Amino acid sequence: MPSEDALAGKVALITGASRGIGFAIARRLGRMGARVAICGRDQARLDQSASSLRDEGIETLAVQADVASGDQISALVQKTHQKFGPIDILVNNAGIGLFGPFHEFGENDWNRVMDTNLKSVFLACRAVAPEMIRRQTGHIINISSLAGKSAFASGAIYCASKWGVLGLTGCMAEDLRGYGIRVSAICPGSVATDFAGHGGKDASKLLQPDDVAHAVAALVTQAPGSFISEVHIRPTRKP
To answer: At what angle do helices 107-114 and 156-176 cross, to 10 degrees?
Structure first.
């Protein structure tokens, strides 16, 4: 694995990082020397997570933000830049899930999932891309899901959002690779968090948040001559 100072001097922004996968990613990148900016909607939870990271000696900026708002994403990026400098690593992790027969959901349900899971990725990437292009460097990692590769009953809205993330990621990678910017997607299976949708699976066999953080660490420390466009993560034993 990369050394503890592999990301010394780097700045990482992780959305949806007040808990679960996002927090694990922030902690892993921070332990590797990065200064991390995290965002979430729950101020109390966000403050608690930031305090935990700082207790480990990780330079941390915590910003309450709704990732579905272009103005709040712009403010988040600006605050990160003012505090730490240009963003080297963006991890779009924020996400929600609604599960059930598609015809039982309303338009507001559709908009809520798409705004959080897909629109936010577009907004955050759009906010950081100009500076990354100017500097001719950067990593963007979008957390999708194996649900973005496979259809299943009661997963219509969630699957659609994660398929969209994969399509967006692939196109952004082509738009930005000529500038030395690497754009990748990570597709985990079910992860042991409080996220809905585990469907009664054996929790002891689920992926752990650190499994996803491990993949992020590998991507951002890859040699500069190549990039991995998509990573699938599955538990060793089926839950």
So the answer is: 30
